[in-house]
């Protein structure tokens, strides 16, 4: 995907430069809980259902398994969302995609999303990392 029209000025090219460099996953440090019995979290009770909290997207992968990755795309900071049909995370701004482990599967992002640990105890999910 093109970031803009090339007009001969460096500023247009610079505006599309990746905001992060390197290969270290990017995302906030978190430690929070989600109560699955609350109506606001009902989508997480269904396989493929997702929700976001504290800068993290959480997804129900089925069979009691949950995953969580940083919500902010490492290219330009737009909010990624989970695509159940493609089993990946998609950034709506420039089309970057990430696997369920947070790895970049399609640019322009080049840095992975941070993946978090999710544990379930009864109706409570704890997300840390």
Plain-language structure description:
There is one protein chain. This protein has one domain: Rieske Iron-sulfur Protein (3-layer Sandwich), CATH 2.102.10. Helix content is 4%, strand content 35%. The protein has 1 helix and 10 strands, in the order αββββββββββ. The strands form 2 sheets. Strands 1-10-9-4-3-2 form a 6-stranded antiparallel beta sheet, with no helix packed on it. β7 and β8 form a beta hairpin. The N terminus is likely disordered.
What is this structure, in a nutshell?
The chain has 1 helix and 10 strands; from the N terminus they run αββββββββββ. It is mostly beta strands and 129 residues long.
Mind sketching the topology for me?
Elements: H1 10-14, E1 31-35, E2 50-53, E3 56-62, E4 65-70, E5 81-83, E6 88-90, E7 97-98, E8 104-106, E9 115-121, E10 124-128
Antiparallel strand pairs: 1-10, 2-3, 3-4, 4-9, 5-6, 6-7, 7-8, 9-10
Looking at CATH, which topology would you report?
Answer: Rieske Iron-sulfur Protein
Strand tally is 10
Q: Indicate the proportion of strand residues.
A: 25-35%
List the domain count as a whole number. Answer: 1
**Terminal residue distance:** 32 Å
Descriptors:
single chain, 129 residues, mainly beta, six-stranded antiparallel sheet, four-stranded antiparallel sheet, 10 strands, 4% helix, globular
